[in-house]
Write a structure and sequence with these properties.
458 residues; mainly alpha; two-stranded antiparallel sheet; 19 helices; 2 strands; globular; disordered C terminus
Length: 458
Amino acid sequence: MSKIDNILSWVAFSLATGVVVIGPWLYGAWEMWWFWPLAVILFLSTACFALRLLLSPARADIINIGRKKPASVLILSFLPFLLYALIRCCMAEVHMDAERSFLLFLLPFLLGLQIILGFSRKQRRILYVLILADLLCLGAYGIINHFVTHNKYVLFEKGYAQYYIDNRATGTFFCPDHFSGIMELALCLGLAIVLTRKIEWKLKIFPSLLCLMAMTGVVLSKSRGGGLTVAVICISALIWGLSLHRKLVRRYYRFVCLTFMTLIILLFCALDTPYTKRFKSYFISRNTKDKSLIEQYHGVAQKLRKTSRGHMYAGALNAWKTAPLLGIGPGMHQNLWPYYNNSLDGNKETGKWPKRQYAYASYEVHNDWLQLLEEYGIIGLLLFCIPASFTFMILLRSRKCDHAAGLGGLLALVCMAFHSLGDFNLQMPSITWLLSAIIALPIATYLRQPIQQEGDDV
């Protein structure tokens, strides 16, 4: 029986780890012909995990966790949202899009569940190292591809002209914002190791290189959301990453780092690089010398409304207003976009055209939080925020068991939560799977460690 359990354990581990590591190299598993095979592999991994649960000796080993109450609360907190999402998926009119939307929530949950309850300590260490190495390789490929092919190609396919004409690094993704997102996750893990006091300096060479490569990747992608997210990551690292140091030392490091960050931002604003111009074109309005701050603010706000993101946000809000509680349905944004993309001030009877008219297609809202609200409604958003809050609190506590992994998971959660306000990284299946693994690894260490070993369950 133990041999069967051992075989099932490593089969489940290999399948799940393969998806996490290989997913970003398959164009983020965005296309259906990549998404569904990888989804099937994750289901097979879950099936192996379920078979292990049926074996009584294995079941006792799997559920032998030190902190049963927080583990139960965390897992059960996801179930109301998943049940609600499943019901809304069955009610949707476009089944394939609804299934994909539902699986973007279900599959990361199943992956995280396996890591927390099914992976051994050795398997978790292997997965952690593979993720670090994978992120380093992804960054190296993106940088090399930027300087060799000037981003005309994404792996073996030709990229979009709008990006390689602007010379924006895309890595293994067709959109540079997604390459920036994966590099932000690399920065989170690298910073977490660098800031962990108990790790020898020799072991911090690799994560330091990872941080440098991640920063380079974000800059080459010219992602404005990526640049802002990097600032949020650094500030979050200063808040939660120095807990192992004395209070006076923490204050000193924070003062020095904030001063350095301020100088970097001022230098960045003073330079006239293409990346700086992209920021200025978005946030700075012309002819502002003779205008008050309020007038300048309204000018920038008006300019943002006229951008493609502003158009998509307005269309998503128009759609959400038709079903504020339940939403328009999972995956329905791209299908109902032609009905709600224009402003609502038109009138067919009088022949009045709406002021805002957009002819382009919008597959995603470019704001994951707004798309969640639009498709799942207020109920879905609130139900999702409950497990997200529990996950955040447990990650805060997990730093006491494994500071590097716990801080990395915490920074990754904050990073994606912030960047999702202006992009759709979490609509990329491979990024959701990678994020789930990064978060689940420290949570597994925290929940499976006996309370007596730590002495304090705060």
